[in-house]
Amino acid sequence: MLDVVMAGRPATKPAPPFGQRLSAARKKAGLTQLKLAERLEITRELVDYYERRAPNPSLEFVQKAAEALGVEPSYFLDGEGPKKKKPGPASDLETRLERLRQLPRSQQDLIIRMLDAAIDQARSNA
Predict the structure, then answer these.
(1) CB under 8 Å to 34, separation ≥6 — which residues?
(2) Is residue 124 part of a domain?
């Protein structure tokens, strides 16, 4: 018989406040744990640790996560909803990103691959 090992925090124990806020900001940004891990240049398992179990993340991680998610570092401390770094109306890019977030994941991935290819081509032509 195969034994199953459960990883992570027990389902009955809530995540620490930082982890709850990190998870909420990540989801609002339309990112998976893997995509956030890639932005932060860490493993997906480490993102999971910060979201579910880390009681006291380093200031360096808080700052990197805030930058990657487009929120102020204070969001992780006071929990007052994700804040944009700049006031005013959404930029054209932010508007397009929001429209992209509304698409099914498979279509998002296709568009992101096309965008990455266009950016790579523009860099090589510069």
Answers:
(1) 44, 47
(2) yes
